[in-house]
Amino acid sequence: MQVQIFSSIHIPLPLEAIYRRLGYKSGITKIDERKREEIERHIEYAASLVCLKGAGLRVPLERVEPTQVFLATGADIRSAKLAGFLKGCREVLFVGSTAGSAVMDAIRGDIEGDDMTRGVVIDAVASEMTDAALDWIMGLFNRLLARENARLTRARFSAGYGDFLLENQKMMYDMLELGRIGVTINENCILIPEKSVTAVVGIHA
């Protein structure tokens, strides 16, 4: 069980997802050309600030009970929802990604200043690119797992959802060694920079 660190992740800009997060619906919301040009300038600026990094770690499952997941590391997670999610899996993949601190500084600067519109766009870009980085990591592991006739679950499960308490993020932070990619965690188990995420993915035989 060795963490794989991705010190530089390059992905296509998820434009459609960014526009959805901004509230625009393809084929429904009309945007005049001037507004679109403004938004796309902000998107390009935001993308230039994002520095995607990530980590992934495969961990065998010892067993899954109705309300508890036992890892081969000796750790366990109490969560009926996570246990249900991992039913039938032989391993779990812990993943994490971050957009870096520069983009968060820009968001704060715009929101505290007088450019709220750009701040909102930058926030959307950072969020969607961080999620897309997790997709990229999952895609890489899926290609490796295909050689073992195994695959990842389509969905992923994050701490703070349902009864999978946010406090579990500290364990995931430590296991993924996220300090190596510039991420810290505070006493409330919030990752810093804010545009940083972790998740659990199941591995099926």
What value does the average pLDDT take?
94
Give the distance, in angstroms, between the N- and C-terminal Cα atoms.
18 Å
Percent of residues in helices comes to 40-55%
Beta strand count: 9
- Globally, the shape reads elongated
Number of domains: 1
User: What's the CATH class label?
Assistant: Alpha Beta
How many individual helices?
Answer: 6
CATH topology: NADH Oxidase
Largest sheet: 7 strands, antiparallel
In percent, how much strand structure appears in the residues? 15-25%
Report the C-alpha radius of gyration, rounded.
Answer: 18 Å
Helix/strand class: alpha+beta
Give the low-confidence spans.
none
Annotated CATH architecture: 3-Layer(aba) Sandwich
**SSE string, helices as H and strands as E:** EHHEEEHEHHEHEEE
Explain what you see.
The protein is an alpha+beta fold. The chain has one domain: 3-Layer(aba) Sandwich (NADH Oxidase), CATH 3.40.109.40. Helices cover 40% and strands 22% of the residues. It contains six helices and nine strands, in the order E-H-H-E-E-E-H-E-H-H-E-H-E-E-E. The strands form two sheets. Strands 1, 2, 3, 4, 5, 6 and 9 form a seven-stranded antiparallel β-sheet that branches. The protein has a two-stranded antiparallel sheet with strand order 7-8. It is elongated. The two termini are 18 Å apart. 37% of the residues are buried. The model has no long low-confidence stretch (mean pLDDT 94).
